[in-house]
């Protein structure tokens, strides 16, 4: 038996599926996964359930059967939410065989075997038709394919394929949309994660400083994201140089394009300093109205004592290729480039 196991590519940031032999101890993959963290994320689960119930209701109000496609079902939780919300049938896709087997047992234990079919395939291999994995295209698309960077687990190509081959045009999607936010900051602590600062040493002939070679100092490095708990970062460790702005959004209810592209936004420096870091996070609207919202915003943006602690979704630190001095009131242009799996930033004067 061959097993597919997820591996994060350290260069691209993408989640890649590798084939392992039948003697591979796949239990370590489950032990190292974040299934437990996701399952205990009450805010996530409540918002998903509210969004799924609303989507099923909208489909039923149109006089249609509610056929759900759940990509990346994991334990089958979201499919069971859909079934309990009144969905007529759910197709639950899970590529990781040990987890797919667990989902089958969990679905059966909870009495949903007649409403949920677990498909142990990658979604791009699923077929639709009388003799296919799915009898018909779904009219509700439910997914949880997101990482801290939003797209690092291949959400964009997965959505692109699903809209082409697995769901109806104009389907309901839960979540309905995702929005990525950014803020420009100066932070010696975070900048030190990218740059080597001069090191002070005591020598026999006096004090000396060890300085990195100019080639290393001028090298921008790989544009890899650093995901951290910004809620654990003291306010004294960074200085915000811009307001929070929307960088881009993705509407999951419409065909999604995964081809590489870029986005630009205009910023105004609210304080003078050295632009070094782009902080980023996202939120997801579970319904078209945006009333059911799940946000990753840090404490200074969303000041509430009811912040949900989670490790499976955090916030992003992006290092600019080089630090740029900015002056309060100066107009700036921030560019975000992305491919299918990762995002990187550059800053220019407007």
UniProtKB/TrEMBL annotation:
<dbReference type="GO" id="GO:0032259">
    <property type="term" value="P:methylation"/>
</dbReference>
<keyword id="KW-0949">S-adenosyl-L-methionine</keyword>
<dbReference type="InterPro" id="IPR055135">
    <property type="entry name" value="PRMT_dom"/>
</dbReference>
<protein>
    <submittedName>
        <fullName>ANM7 methyltransferase</fullName>
    </submittedName>
</protein>
<dbReference type="Pfam" id="PF22528">
    <property type="entry name" value="PRMT_C"/>
</dbReference>
<dbReference type="GO" id="GO:0016274">
    <property type="term" value="F:protein-arginine N-methyltransferase activity"/>
</dbReference>
<dbReference type="InterPro" id="IPR025799">
    <property type="entry name" value="Arg_MeTrfase"/>
</dbReference>
<feature type="domain" description="Protein arginine N-methyltransferase">
    <location>
        <begin position="176"/>
        <end position="336"/>
    </location>
</feature>
<dbReference type="InterPro" id="IPR029063">
    <property type="entry name" value="SAM-dependent_MTases_sf"/>
</dbReference>
<dbReference type="GO" id="GO:0042054">
    <property type="term" value="F:histone methyltransferase activity"/>
</dbReference>
<dbReference type="Pfam" id="PF06325">
    <property type="entry name" value="PrmA"/>
</dbReference>
<keyword id="KW-0808">Transferase</keyword>
<keyword id="KW-0489">Methyltransferase</keyword>
């Amino acid at each position: 038996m061959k097993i597919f196991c997820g591996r994060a590519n350290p260069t691209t940031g993408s989640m890649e599926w590798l084939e392992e032999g039948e003697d591979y101890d796949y239990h370590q993959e489950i032990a190292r996964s974040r299934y437990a963290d996701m399952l205990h994320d009450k805010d996530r689960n409540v918002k998903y359930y509210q969004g799924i119930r609303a989507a099923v209701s909208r489909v039923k109000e149109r006089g249609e059967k509610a056929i759900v496609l759940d990509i990346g079902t994991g334990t089958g939780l979201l499919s069971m939410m859909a079934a309990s919300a009144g969905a007529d049938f759910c197709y639950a896709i899970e590529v990781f065989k040990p987890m797919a087997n667990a989902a089958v047992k969990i679905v059966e234990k909870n009495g949903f075997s007649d409403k949920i079919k677990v498909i142990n395939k990658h979604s791009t291999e699923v077929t639709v038709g009388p003799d296919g994995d799915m009898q018909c295209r779904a009219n509700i698309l439910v997914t949880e394919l997101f990482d801290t960077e939003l797209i690092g687990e291949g959400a964009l190509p997965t959505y692109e394929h699903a809209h082409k081959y697995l769901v109806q045009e104009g389907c309901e999607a839960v979540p309905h949309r995702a929005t990525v936010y950014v803020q420009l900051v100066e932070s010696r602590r975070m900048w030190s994660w990218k740059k080597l600062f001069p090191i002070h040493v005591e020598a026999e002939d006096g004090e000396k400083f060890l300085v990195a070679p100019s080639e290393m100092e001028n090298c921008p490095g790989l544009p890899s994201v650093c995901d951290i708990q910004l809620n654990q970062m003291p306010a004294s460790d960074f200085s915000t140089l811009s307001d929070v702005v929307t960088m881009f959004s993705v509407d999951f209810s419409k065909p999604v394009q995964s081809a590489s592209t870029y986005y630009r936004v205009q910023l105004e420096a609210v304080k003078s300093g050295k632009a070094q870091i782009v902080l980023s996070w996202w939120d997801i609207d579970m319904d078209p109205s945006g009333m059911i919202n799940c946000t990753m915003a840090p404490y200074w943006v969303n000041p509430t004592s009811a912040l949900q602690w989670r490790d499976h979704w955090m916030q992003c630190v992006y290092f600019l290729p080089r630090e740029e001095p900015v002056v309060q009131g100066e107009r700036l242009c921030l560019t975000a480039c992305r491919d299918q799996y990762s995002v990187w930033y550059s800053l220019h004067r407007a």
